[in-house]
Amino acid sequence: MEIKTRRDFIKTLGVGVAAASLPSWIYSCALGKKKPNILFIMSDDHAAHAISCYGSQVNQTPRLDKLASEGMRFDNCFCTNGICAPSRASILTGKYSHMNGMLDNKLEFDGRQQTLPKLLKPAGYQTAMIGKWHLKSEPTGFDYYKVVPGQGKYFDPLFQTKNSWPETIEEKGYVTDIITDEAIRFMQTTDPEKPFLLMCHHKAPHRPWQPDPKHWEQFKDREIPEPPTLFDDYKGKAEAVLNAEMTLERHMHPLDTGGLIAPENLKGDDLIRWRYQHYMRNYLACIASIDDNIGRILDFLKTSGLEENTIVIYTSDQGFFLGDHGWFDKRFMYEESLRMPLIIRYPGVVPKGQVSEDMVLNVDFAPTFLDFAGAAIPNDIQGENFRKILKGRTPKNWRQSAYYHYYEYPAWHMVDAHYGIRTDRYKLIHYYGYTDEWELFDLLKDPREMNNIYNLPEYQDIIKTLKENLYQLQAHYKVKKPVPKQIERSETSLF
How far apart are the C-alpha atoms of 130 and 125, rounded to whole Å? Predict the structure, then answer.
């Protein structure tokens, strides 16, 4: 007999052997185990290749590595729109940008819509949002929130709360420490008889990078290894790639290098190298603070007795270029920007030390958490539930391709609007904002995406198939046909 619900299971109680083979969440609930707490920790612009368990060549992150060793690391987690606000909205709603209304960072999130915390409350969850919100409108669906306005400040940050919105209050200290303090304080004061959802969103390591003195000392004299694509000449790439305003050589501001101005005699590759070293030292020092504070939270969960029944998630709102292709920032559908780190620990449920190669997206987070909470997953959620993957079982017909769509043009960094499809081997990108160009990369032969092979005759059949799949995905996700903007390019603000 197929058992679909907890009620079905209760009707069949009495056969212990049969019960032992059931999904763990059904078995646990039948035995009276509490619903899991969900601790969702997200940083801002933390590239996966700046985490040592992902093979980082530039830093060590021992606390995140420990978390990964006790749970599952996802090597193919991707964002659906690679900038801050749209990614956050997709995580909250389980929907693509065109469905939740957050196409870019300029817009304001409609807080009246269905979100993860609102869906968890009928399931008995206490809900809180602490840290970077970045959606402009007042947070809704949370019993408690304490968020930084806009991007927030690294030192002596301002916060908005339910009692003060939209006015701010100042907290003395370093923002990563303060957000961690507030997260621990919330967990200390929750009703122990009810589960909680805590969204702990760090401001770091968003630019301009300002590490605290303790972590800056660890990096101030360190020589950071250079990425293999630091001096990409963009040969054969789309015009949109050539025109992006996010190069180390031409577009980096002194604020990004700790306020230092490069010596006048530095030009070309020497200038790029100088800026890379100074930028990365500050960036990585900010991450070191995050890693230490992850350790504080993990220690608290252990000593408080919350560890065994708390799902801990660590991710970032998207990836980031760490000098890759001569860039900083994100936005492009290239791997370093598209890939999000994702580490999930749930003791006794998620096997330790596992690595998944399955494609998961940020729109998948909400339905997965809802399933673990025993809450209904609405039909209009576009993400997929990957709970089975966390148990080491890839569902039949799991996605073999991912759809991405970036809208924000013209804007900071002047990255052209584009959409595309990524499979396990190929990536096809269409730029349409002020150009009409395509790029194709063979990720097996060219994992660093240096060679655009779109115009090669031998790939035309593959391109035809990829386009068919791309348009099927657009129809599935109800994407309206994008219209080129035909807007003159212009200089824009740095931040």
Answer: 16
227: nearest Cα among 320, 319, 326: 326
Greatest extent of the chain over all pairs of C-alpha atoms, in Å: 81
Backbone angles phi, psi at 431, to 5 degrees: -90, 135
CA 489 from centre of chain: 29
Question: pLDDT band at 483, cuts 50/70/90?
Answer: low
- The answer, as to whether pTM is greater than 0.90, is yes
Q: Is 413 left (phi over 0), alpha (psi -120 to 50) or beta?
A: left
17 touches 275 (CB < 8 A): no
pLDDT value at residue 280: 98
Q: Other CB atoms closer than 10 Å to residue 106's CB: what's the count?
A: 11
End-to-end CA distance of the chain: 58
SS3 169: strand
What pLDDT, on a 0 to 100 scale, did the predictor assign at position 485? 58
Report yes or no: 36 and 309 within 8 Å, Cβ to Cβ.
yes
Helix (H, G, I), strand (E, B) or coil at 428: strand
Strands (E), 257-309: none
Model confidence at 148: pLDDT above 50: yes
**Contact residues for 296 (Cβ-Cβ < 8 A; gap 6+):** 180, 184
The CA radius of gyration of the chain, in Å to the nearest whole number, is 23
Mean pLDDT of 360-372: 98
Q: Cα(221)–Cα(225) distance, rounded to whole angstroms? A: 13
What residue ranges define each of the domains in the chain, with the CATH number in brackets?
1-33 (no CATH), 36-212+279-401 (3.40.720.10), 228-274 (no CATH)
In this predicted structure, which of 136-145, 245-254, 290-299, 484-493 has the lowest mean pLDDT? 484-493
Q: What is the mean pLDDT of residues 427-451?
A: 97
Confidence check: pLDDT of 35 > 80: yes
